Amino acid sequence: MIKIPTADPSPNEAAYLVAALYHFVSVPRFADLRAPLQALCEENGVRGTLLLAHEGINGTIAGPEAGVRAVLSFLRAQPEFASLEHKESGAAEMPFLRMKVRLKKEIVTMGVEDIDPNRVVGTYVAPKDWNALISDPDTIVIDTRNDYETAIGIFKGAVDPQTKTFREFPEWVRNHTGLHNKPKIAMYCTGGIRCEKATAFMKEQGFDEVYHLKGGILKYLEEVPPEESLWEGACFVFDERVSVTHGLEEGEHTLCRACRHPLTAEEVAAPTYEAGVSCPHCHDSRTEQDRIRFRERQKQMDLARRRGERHLGK
């Protein structure tokens, strides 16, 4: 194991550097960046997902430190991404199976036209100031993530919209009249990107005092000591680590390969859990044909693991 040096020192010791990033900016030539970015990542042993759109870039990558920094340097060499910021953490094992650079309509899909965080957005709140804001009795705290994410961790006292996808969030806001009962709205998400659009949407809906956690939960867990934290549980991440905790240490959750829901040790021990086939969250919704198909997929994954390979699937 090697200790990965970071701009902000972390107690993590890991073999791979993980970089989460996003940047809202007009990029008319975004399609032209796909091929060179994909090639550069592959040449440097970097894996993950990067989304490119007219409105900017979003994604998480992992790999050898030198490789990840080469990709970040390439991005910042582009005029549009010169001020790109990123968050670092570590992983004991490569957390991604492949490298994907995709062209999208939006870098985070909300489904509302003309929402532009470059035009209007909420007020950023640094992690060190977040506790005071969400402890204020005049503040309503909203988690903008989806239900499978909030199931394993949430800020104390936060409202959970229990959405299945981010596309459901605008309708939830329109129907949740209680949001007008207090003057301040504080919003948060994993890394900050969903709140860029969520707070922009709230401002356009007429809410005046709208705030969001700068750098998201990940930055909060990195900077705020556990003894001062108002975070309860773990933070779901979209890679093979499944979750992280304070100090961005890898969590103890397992991912259900059938429904992608994070699982606790108790859920893995449940009779409805079968590795790669079902879990307490999806068991009753699966057909026998589903189970046969999933068992074959899991068998191929196990065989690949014994050969020292990684089964990528389709």
Automatic annotation (TrEMBL):
Domain (Rhodanese) ranges: 135-229
Keywords, comma-separated and alphabetical: Oxidoreductase, tRNA processing
Catalytic activity, reaction form: uridine(34) in tRNA + AH2 + O2 = 5-hydroxyuridine(34) in tRNA + A + H2O
Enzyme Commission number: 1.14.-.-
PROSITE patterns: RHODANESE_3
Residue runs in coiled coils: none
Top-level taxon of origin: Bacteria
Keyword tRNA processing: yes
GO biological process: tRNA modification
Enzyme class, spelled out: oxidoreductase
GO molecular function, one term: oxidoreductase activity, acting on paired donors, with incorporation or reduction of molecular oxygen
HAMAP family in alphabetical order: TrhO (MF_00469)
Family per record: Belongs to the TrhO family.
Function text: Catalyzes oxygen-dependent 5-hydroxyuridine (ho5U) modification at position 34 in tRNAs.
Official protein name in the record: tRNA uridine(34) hydroxylase
Species name: Mycoplana dimorpha
